[in-house]
Amino acid sequence: MMFISEILIYIAVVFGCAQRCNGYTRNEIEKTYPDLGPEIVLFPDENNSPIIGYMKMDNNSRLFGFYEKNIEEEVKFEYFSRDFPNGVPIEHKTDLGKYVNISKPTKCITHGWMSGGRMDSSVRLRDGFLYRHDANILVMDWSAISGNPFYPIPMMATPDVGRHYGTYLNYLVDELGLNPDGIHLVGHSLGAHVSGFAGREVKNGKVGRITGLDPALPGFDMGINPSGTLNQNDAIFVDIIHTCAGFLGYKTPLGHVDIYPNGGGPPQPGCNVLEFIEACSHGRSWKIFASSLFNNKPYIATKCPSFDDLDKKKCSGKQIPVGDATSSDTRGIYYSQVSEADLMYNATNKN
Ligand SMILES: *[C@@H]1O[C@H](CO)[C@@H](O)[C@H](O)[C@H]1NC(C)=O
Ligand SMILES: *[C@@H]1O[C@H](CO)[C@@H](O)[C@H](O)[C@H]1NC(C)=O
Ligand SMILES: *[C@@H]1O[C@H](CO)[C@@H](O)[C@H](O)[C@H]1NC(C)=O
């Protein structure tokens, strides 16, 4: 497993930058959590308590089980629509034919590391789509793999998971006659790359849109993942929201349009709890997208001529809506200001 040591080197770089960029030192975090090594990331769980993710594998990794490639059993699908707001399990591809209405647009959601199809990011995105669109909604849950606390395992599994996801998309297109233009894939973190790998499996036409929500950076920029990254060729329109740029997420543009709320990097506004700066900022991308589905007044982004202007927050070009309403002819890099108070997690707290 050549890649393990390479990831370690990479992670040292990430936290090296974290020490310069965040205003907090790693030492301060390690005082709060004395067991933390430099290869550990803390994620808030459902109760906002820290759970540990390891950026490398060690001899204890096997306690958590290696990735077994039982994709068929490990990846689960659920269908939602306004007629089925509580969801129905899709045990087999043929079940799609019982529920999918090919006259409607189709929204496909997936999650990242240490998350799942019934966890916050997927649930909020799904509820947002149900609120905003009369659509077929498919949630792909690969938590049996992505829940592994050793990051390299789910990271290296993303191509296989994406290919499997793609067979479901092909079933919709080839067997049910769905127009691939009407398919919109949305994925957070590792799930952004999984969505790209799924989109490129569709051969009979092209998926209409893929939204990458802070696509995962560690490992992907080193070329060790044979499928590369989510990119512009994976769909007719690829839009990216960057919120932990250069740390857990990409800073490099990956889409036709790349939006950088508050400049794109951590800490995002309100992500000030020391141990969660990165994870909180990384999650801000899906919160902004989900909020865009609930909010009737769109967040606005302004076009930047260059990264230099973006970093200086000095952008004054064309203005566009952020999130679901970003139109498919938008191109370039954009700066946006979205405060924590602007976020909306459901339709009840309307602005
Ligand atoms: C892991 O196991 C190998 C072989 O059992 C051993 O040589 C190595 O020192 C171990 N590494 C750590 C960090 O414990
Ligand atoms: C499918 O969706 C179309 C457009 O929303 C609607 O007119 C039609 O009644 C739906 N078909 C079924 C079987 O629900
Ligand atoms: C809606 O969101 C607010 C906070 O944004 C929360 O307090 C409330 O419980 C949520 N309501 C539902 C139905 O989820």
What can you tell me about this protein's structure?
The chain is of the alpha/beta class and 351 residues long. It has one domain: Rossmann fold. 31% of the residues lie in helices and 18% in strands. The protein contains 10 helices and 13 strands. An 11-stranded mixed sheet has the order 4-3-6-5-7-8-9-10-13-11-12, sandwiched between helices. A two-stranded antiparallel ribbon has the order 1-2. A hairpin with a 5-residue loop joins strand 1 and strand 2. Helix 5 packs parallel to helix 9 and helix 7 packs parallel to helix 8. The radius of gyration is 19 Å and the shape is globular. The N terminus is likely disordered. The site of one 2-acetamido-2-deoxy-beta-D-glucopyranose (NAG) has 4 residues, from loops.
Number of helices: 10
Beta-strand content: 15-25%
Instruction: Provide the CATH architecture.
Output: 3-Layer(aba) Sandwich
Taking the alpha carbons of the first and last residues, their distance comes to: 51 Å
User: Can you identify the CATH class?
Assistant: Alpha Beta
What strand order characterises the main sheet? 4-3-6-5-7-8-9-10-13-11-12
Each distinct ligand: 2-acetamido-2-deoxy-beta-D-glucopyranose
Quaternary assembly? single chain
CATH superfamily membership: Alpha/Beta hydrolase fold, catalytic domain
Could you please say which CATH topology applies here? Rossmann fold
Q: Tell me the radius of gyration.
A: 19 Å
Helix content: 25-40%
